[in-house]
Write a structure and sequence with these properties.
Layout lengths: L1 H7 L15 E5 L1 H7 L4 E7 L5 H11 L7 E4 L4 E4 L1 H11 L10 H15 L7 E4 L2 E5 L6 E2 L8 H9 L7 E8 H5 L4 E5 L7 H8 L13 E4 L3 E3 L2 H18 L3 E4 L3 H13 L5 E3 L7 H6 L7 E4 L18 H9 L3 E5 L6 H8 L8 E9 L3 H6 L1 H10 L11 H48 L4 H25 L9 H27 L45
Parallel strand pairs: 1-9, 10-16, 11-16, 12-14, 12-15, 13-14, 15-16
Antiparallel strand pairs: 2-8, 3-4, 5-6, 6-7
Helix pairs in contact: 3-5, 3-6, 5-6, 16-17, 16-18, 17-18
Length: 559
């Protein structure tokens, strides 16, 4: 739907447009769409003529830099900052005097994206290499996303890092975030089993209340307290030992992992312990249906990424359904779900828990954690570690206490809060472009319906495409102005408006200069000088529209 919207606003005739009015949308797995995917921009682009050979050069240069000494990775902020020592080394490698001079500004962009690729993105966690291509792994579902590419040169940097063919960068013709696409609808609603932990974001961003509907049957699932170990090794040793014990009883076990790398590591440990099992991850997604269908079978052990976490109903006793086998599994306690780590979002943990004890069936869940897990290591491990040190807890002894589980929950809440702030922050910036896009697309539609010359539409599209690039560059530029005591958002709004005004001037000038050269007479449909301000919305229907178009309000923004 989002891409249809963008294509409709690039269409050369009304006959090529496919979408109707934005009246009402019902969204399945609404938290996945409106929160997990909120920052994902939908982009229609085409390859640029610019060569991407520089990324190969920078991949070699950055590979020689030393972490901590030449660049610092800030995992909490998902950022990489180069040090002065690193800058000196890069300048020496490239044989240039000043990396950040105006003539080398493009080089600093290549460097920044390559540093991010090197320091923040991991193979088999954030992406995989398949058939000579970098394929993104969805961090929330664990699925591959073929056809999607990181923007701003990051994808090219990953291609250079892994030694596959570096594709040219692309030019953006049209874009909109999923967040702003769904805000086009007059009314939206949705369903999911895991919205409660994100209730604040739903109400603040979308004006949606979260209403809890009771389950069809009372839940018989037992959620056991987390067990926490000092090291990953101790955690995995305990996990394998417990899985082996349960497997010997015949009770089916589903082991949830957070990444492909983690998935393969657990699989190797189970194999070493002689535990027969099935493995499911994005690399083996072709077998998903078959593997999940048998995950509830007597004696089965399944190791899966988040692919098995959402919208999956595991039948006890296996598939096809056999009441006798199902009854045996129920007597053993139903499906037992084991998690190897906590996810950044509590919703993802709850989805995994929800695989057990469905429709009133028995089931149980257990999380195995360590102080070396990313969530605890980055956001909350110190407090837990201090407790373990003070109690002189041996490495192979777990701690299972409310205080510890509370610390883990607080770490997750902290991450969710940071991610919410990041999404809200980006929305503030995107709102500037969103208002401009709404006006441009509205006027383009008027030109289209007035059967304006195709070249007029092409010029408007080209100017808008250039504007998108300028806005993206501006967003990068204003961030450093905070160091000069300037509010980056205020600066972005001010300069973004100036750029928008220039787009209008350039378009109107072109139409005036070329009107007599066009094959058809183009009825002038002037673009507004600015999007309608919020405060100007209460205006008489026959009054001049405050946007500056020269039309009556009822014929312009009042329609």
């Amino acid at each position: 739907f989002g891409f249809d919207y963008l294509r409709d606003n690039l269409a050369s005739s009304t006959g090529n447009q496919v979408q109707g009015d934005f009246a009402f949308a019902i969204i399945d797995e609404v938290d996945s769409v409106l929160i997990d995917e909120a920052r994902t921009p939908l982009i229609i682009s085409a390859p640029d003529a610019e060569s991407s050979a520089f990324y190969k050069v920078f991949a070699r240069v950055v590979a020689r830099l030393k972490p901590e000494e030449d660049y610092v990775v800030e995992e909490k902020l998902r950022a990489v900052n180069i040090t002065q020592e690193g800058i000196d080394k890069v300048e020496k490698e490239l044989n240039i005097k000043d990396l950040y001079s105006s003539e080398n500004i493009r080089l600093s962009h290549y460097l920044q994206e390559t540093l991010k690729a090197q320091g923040l993105f991991q193979l088999d966690k954030d992406y995989v290499v398949k058939n000579g291509e970098i394929i993104i792994v969805d961090q929330f579902t664990g699925r591959l996303m073929p056809g999607r590419r990181y923007s701003a040169g990051l994808h090219q940097a990953l291609e250079a890092k892994e030694g596959v063919r570096v594709q040219n960068e692309s030019r953006t013709y049209a874009q909109i975030t999923i967040q702003n696409y769904f805000r086009l609808y007059k009314k939206i609603a949705g369903m999911t089993g895991t919205a409660q932990t994100s209730a604040e974001e739903f109400i603040k961003v979308y004006g949606l209340d979260v209403v809890i509907i009771p389950t069809n049957k009372p839940s018989a699932r037992k959620d056991m307290p987390d067990v926490i170990y000092k090291t990953r090794k101790a955690k995995y040793d305990a996990l394998v030992k417990e899985v082996k014990r349960i497997n010997e009883t015949g009770q089916p076990v589903l082991i949830g992992t957070v990444s492909i790398e983690n998935n393969e590591e657990v699989s190797a440990l189970l194999g070493k312990a002689g535990i027969k099992h099935e493995m499911l991850n994005a690399k083996k997604h072709e077998q998903e249906g078959k593997v999940i269908a048998q995950a509830g079978k007597l004696g089965s052990v399944t190791v899966a990424t988040n692919m098995a976490g959402r919208g999956v109903d595991i039948v006890l006793g296996g598939n096809p359904f056999d009441s006798e086998k199902a009854e045996k599994v129920k007597k053993l306690g139903g499906l037992h779900v084991v998690a190897t780590e906590r996810h950044e979002a509590r919703r993802i943990d709850n989805q995994l828990r929800g695989r057990a004890g469905r429709q009133g069936d028995p089931g149980s869940t257990q999380f195995y954690l360590s102080l070396e897990d990313d969530v605890l290591r980055i956001f909350g491990g110190e407090r837990v570690q201090n407790i373990m040190e003070s109690l002189k807890v041996p490495e192979d002894m777990p701690i299972s206490a409310k205080l510890i589980s509370k610390s883990v929950g607080q770490a997750q809440s902290k991450i969710e809060g940071m991610n919410f702030d990041a999404r809200k922050h980006l929305l503030d910036y995107d709102d500037v472009l969103n208002k401009q896009r709404t006006v441009i697309y509205q006027r383009r539609q008027e030109l289209l319906e007035a059967k304006a010359h195709p070249q007029v539409l092409s010029i408007l599209d080209m100017l808008w495409m250039n504007h998108l690039e300028n806005i993206e560059a501006l967003m990068d530029a204003v961030r450093i102005r905070a160091y000069g005591q300037h509010d980056p958002l205020v600066e972005f709004r001010r300069e973004g408006h100036i750029m928008y005004q220039q787009l209008i001037v350039d378009f109107e000038d072109w139409v005036k200069e070329n009107a007599d050269k066009l094959d058809e007479v183009v009825e002038e449909i002037p673009l507004p000088a600015k999007p309608l301000p919020e405060s100007d919305k209460k205006v008489g229907r026959n009054d001049p529209c405050p946007c500056g178009s020269g039309k009556k309000y009822k014929k312009c923004h009042g329609t």
